From TrEMBL:
Its EC number is 2.1.3.3. It is found in: Cytoplasm. Carbamoyl phosphate binds at S55, T56, R57, T58, Q82, R106, H133, P134, C135, Q136, C263, L264, R291. It catalyses: carbamoyl phosphate + L-ornithine = L-citrulline + phosphate + H(+). Keywords: Cytoplasm, Transferase. HAMAP family: OTCase. GO terms for molecular function: amino acid binding; ornithine carbamoyltransferase activity. Coiled coil: none annotated. It comes from Phreatobacter oligotrophus. L-ornithine binds at N164, D224, S228, M229. This is Ornithine carbamoyltransferase. Reversibly catalyzes the transfer of the carbamoyl group from carbamoyl phosphate (CP) to the N(epsilon) atom of ornithine (ORN) to produce L-citrulline. It comes from the Bacteria. One of its GO terms (cellular component) is cytoplasm.
Length: 305
């Protein structure tokens, strides 16, 4: 009998309870890390990791996470594979499924990742596409809740570009029940239908071009780089986004106990100042650490352990 593999492609594919269960598992694995209780639930399992774009956190957290769960990894880059010479994504998926037990992929083309998942007979995990970064937002919500309790009913403010990380925050909002205030320049605003979809799903989301308005009463201020992988109009983006820098002044317009998050890598002096990155409200390195724990929660869910 065959059953569908458990893919982790977009937060929108899940209900809130499932995502919460993955985070509960991540928390449990974090607590028993490096103790005999941790066990080796993925012993004998192999994860193939395909990177078409650079990565520090995603690559290392999946690799270490898989090893800590008792499994092994194979690191591949698109250019070194026959994918780079035109082998189709679906043939690649079918072949890899015969060798490995799960595939994690970072590739800008979101549809290609979906295609890979459709053809694969093992779980496929989205390690970032141009359209979403679900693993990051799992770690972010885990971090928020460790610092400030349940995110339900709290306010998260985004100041910056509309990109893959924001898209996953938007998908998370109705599923975790937090308020999301988005500030971007008008020219870079999220597509109206994306916000409308999340609102139909019950999200409390607003958009403004004024970053000060967005951070008012926020429990958490989030930003990301102004130029994401694959963006070609760096100069234009820098000009448009200057006013959205998260600096001390903007942070002081949020709640006094607000935290600051950034998926990293940060471009200090651009989207965030040193003062905020290294300041008392910043939780960015705990957030980066939680990539490891959240990834382990996702892996455990994909493998059903
Ligand atoms: N935040 C994040 O995904 O970082 P990497 O690009 O280093 O994986
Ligand atoms: N928005 C960024 C995230 C990097 C982790 C990018 O896509 O480059």
């Amino acid at each position: 009998m065959t059953h569908s593999p458990r893919h982790f492609i977009d937060l929108a594919d899940f209900g809130g309870a499932d995502l919460k269960a993955i985070l509960d598992k991540a928390g449990a694995l974090k607590r028993v890390r490096r103790t005999p209780e941790a066990g080796k639930p993925l012993a004998g399992k192999v994860l193939a990791m395909i990177f078409e774009r650079p990565s520090t956190r995603t690559r290392v957290s999946f690799d270490v996470g898989m090893r800590e769960l008792g499994g092994e990894t194979i690191m591949l880059t698109g250019a070194e594979m026959q994918l780079g010479r035109g082998e189709t994504i679906s043939d690649t998926a079918k072949v890899l499924s015969r060798y490995v037990d799960a595939i994690m992929i970072r590739m800008l083309d979101h549809n290609a990742v979906r295609e890979l998942a459709e053809a694969a007979t093992v779980p496929v995990i989205n390690g970032l596409t141009k359209l979403s970064h679900p693993c990051q937002i799992m770690a972010d919500i885990m971090t928020f809740e460790e610092k400030k309790g349940s995110i339900r009913g709290k306010t998260v403010a985004w100041a910056g570009d509309t990109n893959n990380v924001l898209a996953s925050w938007i998908q998370a909002a109705p599923r975790f029940g937090f308020k999301l205030n988005i500030a971007t320049p008008e020219e870079l605003a999220p597509r109206r239908e994306i916000i409308a979809l999340a609102q139909r799903e019950g999200a409390d989301i607003s958009w403004t071009s004024d970053p000060y308005q967005a951070v008012e009463r926020a429990d958490c201020v989030v930003t990301d780089c102004w130029v994401s992988m694959g963006d070609e109009d760096a100069g234009r983006r820098h000009n448009l986004l200057k006013a959205y820098q998260v600096n001390k002044q903007l942070m002081s317009a949020a709640n006094s106990d607000a935290i600051f998050m950034h998926c990293l890598p940060a471009h200090r002096g651009e989207e965030v100042t040193d003062e905020v990155m290294d300041g008392p409200q910043s939780v960015v390195f705990d957030e980066a650490e939680n990539r490891l724990h959240a990834q382990k929660g996702v892996l455990a869910w994909c493998f059903g352990v």
